[in-house]
Every structure is written in C-alpha cells, then in structure tokens.
Amino acid sequence: MSIIAWKTAWDEYSQKTIYQRVSRSCACPEKTAQSPYSDTREIAMNIYDIENRTVDELRQGYYYDPGKGYICLHCEFTSTSASAMESHLKEIHSKEEDSFFYHLLNADSVLGELSYPVKMVAYCLYKRMTDKEIGETLNMNPNTVRSHRRLLRKKYSECKVMLMLCERMNLGRQSDRARPPAPDERIPGLDADGNVIGFFGKDRVHDPKRPIPHASVLLLVAQRHEDGAMRFLICTKSSRMLTFAGKADAAFGEQLHKRWIDIEGGQCQQSDCAAIELHKPLPEEIFINAAKRELEEEVYIKAYPLDTAKPMYLYTDETGKEGTKLFPFGQNMETTRVYLVRLPDGIPQNRILVRDTWTDSVGGSITKRYPSEFVTFEELLGFVDSDDTALMDGALRVVERMKRDPTLKKRMFDMLENAEL
Which structural domain range is residue 308 located in? Predict the structure, then answer.
C-alpha cells in the first residue's frame, strides 16, 4: 500500500466517531461529556473505569453491580443476566472494535505518552500487517518498524510483571466508587454586546453549530539570541492531534501528518477575576491576569524566577460574528488580547521548557514538558504556506494580522527592544 493509499484509508477511518453515541436518556453524570454536537452526548470507557474495574471486567466490557445487575462499560446498558449482556456487546459494540482500539491507544494519561510513529505502528499491527507492509504504508524504514515493535513487546512484558506484582499486593480493585470528574475550567461566555451570560466548558464554547463568544489571551514570548536576532517561542501540538481525532467527524487525514505549531495562550477563566458579574462586561483586569497565569502555567525556566517577565499589551483581535474554524473540529468566536513577553537575554535555551496540558481519550489530564524551540518571525510567517507544518488558530490569526499590518509588526519589535529586563 502506498503512502497516498494509507492517507486515504486513514482519512476514511478518521470520519468514524471514536465514542459510542447514545441518547441523553441513558447517559450518567460520571461518564458523560457534552458533545461538540449539540444533539448528542458521548459515552465511552473512561479513566474512572480503568482505575476502579478489574482487568477481567475491562476485558469483557461489563461489570456486575449487586444493586443494578450487569452494566456495560461502553454505554451503561444494564441487564439481569450475563448472557443478555454478552448478546448486547456482540450486537451493539462488536462493530466498534476499531474505534475502541483507537480509543485505548490514545489513553496517554494511563499508558504514558507513546509517540505518533509508535502509535501508527501499533495500529498497523492491530490490523495484522507485516513489517514490510507497515514500512511501505508509513514510508518508514523496516529497521525503525522493528524497533517500534520491540518497544511495544517490551511494554507488554513490563505490564505482565506489574500485573503480577499488583495482584500480590491486592491492588486489583481500588474502589467501587468512581472519583468525581475534575471540574471544567469555567470560561465566561459573552453575548453580542460583550456582557457575561454564564460560564461554560471548552467544548461548549467551541461548539461548531452554536459557538459561544468568549475572551482569550495570546502570548508572543521572545528572546534575543546570540546572533542578535529576536526569536519567538513556539510549541508543537502534534502529540495532541491523535487525541483530538477521536472527537472529530470531519476527515483530516492529510492534516494529521503535519507538524502543528502554536504560541502560548488560552481562554480567560472565571478564576482569573473575582469581580465577574452576570449581564455585565468582563472586568479589564481579567485579561492581564489570564496572561500572567498562562505564562506561569506554560513556560518554565529552570532555576530562574519568571516573575521578571511582564506581559505587555500589543493589540486586540476579533474573530468576528462568523468566527474561525478550529482544527480538527469546532468553531471559535473570541475576543483576544495579544501580549508580548520579553525573556532576559543569556538564559540558555535548554533551561526553558514549555508545558502543555490536555485531556486524553479516556478523560485523564496530561501535563507534559517539552524542550523549548525559538524561531524568527520570518520563519513563523513561512509556516503559513508550508507543506509539512501548519499553524493552529491562535498563531495563524496573529501571523496573518502582522502580514496585513506592517506598522503593527514594527511596533511589536520596538516594544520588545525597549522592554525592561
């Protein structure tokens, strides 16, 4: 199979929903999350099941509750007999085996993050492909395929030993009570006049059918390097794409193979300001507080106090009433304030780390630290037309605005040059 055929096959596969879609009537609070699509909810085996169910229960796909009977881990279907539950799994969920494998493959909070190439090799092995077929499909050296296969076998051996140890320590079942889901980061939603209408989660404000206007901040973090050039901190979000793929119905096989780049930033949250009131505009201080929080959460410098770096307001960006399309799904309608942050000269790049936090396929929270990467602004502009690199929504809007407004670009560099260090 050629790499083009592989991309086509992946493109078709990515159109399938990873989670079993069910009606609201069979949803339970501990296992549901509002779907990006307003008429459905999503249910799937999640991190609470993994933590609280035995290996046998997870493998068979259901568990027994003395008060309720047999309960399906995929959709909360209940039955008084094991045979009826087996029939349910065979009739309803047997066709979802591919999606379920993909769902587990992206449980990074449990597995430890597997690299994108290793995950793709794992998926090909699941499809019973030979090393030669995998190499041709992924355009990968056969030695690399074998190396990834050995890594997966090594993990399998480790898991077997750990399982035996845990069984002897009586750690097979922690508790029958699932931990409550972590509360959503509450994002103030706004009406057309900019007044607060309530507080929502990320999926809701980015609903592709009914997005909710909200506020956000973006940070252009810069440092002068030894060659005298001002360079900007970027972060690679490619490791999140497979997890995001599980939430997308739209095909994006070609896009999935790109390297996705973003800059620092995020939504303004309820915790950023205690003075938020319903039916009134957001207080001004919420933006600078959000900028400081995002800087503290996303940029880490070893053995150096980051409080010397102060966000400097540059301009305000509006997505407009139509909003902008998010990859791989969703719609974004936000008012964004863009800030500049000048890091002191002379800090070695290997001391600067980028932190990224996201939710994986089973609902677990993951925080990773990555080595920093700095690029010139011209290199950042070049990513717009690149075949193998793409800019995510926030970075793309900043870059396109700078291309349209050279005066703003000049002001940005002037502010960075004159920033107090």
Answer: 187-417
